[in-house]
Design a protein that fits this description.
Order of helices and strands: HHEHHEEHEEEHEHH
CATH topology of the largest domain: Alpha-Beta Plaits
Radius of gyration: 21 Å
Largest sheet: 5 strands, mixed
Strand content: 15-25%
CATH architecture of the largest domain: 2-Layer Sandwich
Helix content: 40-55%
CATH class of the largest domain: Alpha Beta
Shape: globular
Length: 227
């Protein structure tokens, strides 16, 4: 079964909120526990997307900045996958937004069950998702993207007795310590590969190596691969 997205749960161990003077018998113990639970719930709220349970855009931007710094210090690599549900506007127009939300939840569960423990899956916005893959070179990132693409295409929704499937297009890129780009350019490069996947017919994965294997103009190649 797909793994559920990790959500930080409030602690039930009231000993963590003991008063330094009165211990667990403090008249303020219950209030301290409630404050602790509210704080943990707030921490989850600001990091997680309410619909899908994946990390939200705020957490994505915080994480990618931190990972960029780690790559520059350590000399390791960072890969990024950006995926977008194909023809999602048409899907919503036909089946309605409630069914569209159900599809996004199923996709999120599939993402969560496919990625590795160290990866950072996020809802980037709308029907677009981003996955940070620390210490992962491009070939491994492309392999995971291809596996995830197949898993998403295997999702079957039962809508009023009709079996409905979805698909997604993927862009993948890798950042190394020798790359002279910032976070904004790295995201833009990955998004350009996603756009290339849409142009190639959707339900596919595109990255730097895949573009070199296709017939594109020098201008298009420069735009997609960067300087």
């Amino acid at each position: 079964m797909p793994k559920k997205s990790h959500v930080v749960q409030p602690s039930e161990d009231k000993s963590q909120a003991q008063c330094a003077v009165h211990g667990s018998n403090s008249p303020f113990a219950e209030k301290l526990v409630r404050c602790q639970e509210e704080l943990m719930a707030l921490q989850s709220y600001v990091r997680l997307d309410e619909l899908t349970g994946l990390f939200n855009y705020r957490h994505f931007m915080h994480s990618i900045e931190a990972e960029f710094e780690r790559v520059r210090r350590s000399g390791l690599v960072l890969s990024l996958i950006i995926l977008d549900v194909d023809d999602f506007k048409d899907f919503n127009d036909r089946w309605g937004h409630e069914v569209g939300n159900l599809a996004l939840k199923e996709l999120a569960r599939t993402v969560q069950s496919t990625v590795r423990r160290a990866d950072i899956p996020c809802r980037y916005g709308g029907e677009e998702f981003a996955i940070l893959l620390p210490d992962t070179p491009l070939p491994a990132a492309v392999g995971l993207a291809e596996r995830l693409r197949g898993n998403i295409h295997s999702i079957v929704l039962d809508i009023d007795g009709e079996k409905v499937s979805i698909s997604a297009s993927f862009g993948v890129d890798c950042f190394t310590a020798s790359d002279n780009i910032d976070v904004t350019r790295f995201i833009a490069n990955t998004d350009a590969f996603l756009y290339s996947a849409k142009e190639a017919g959707r339900n596919c994965v595109r990255h730097a190596s895949s573009l070199l294997e296709t017939s594109v103009s020098n201008e298009e190649r420069d735009l997609l691969l960067g300087d």
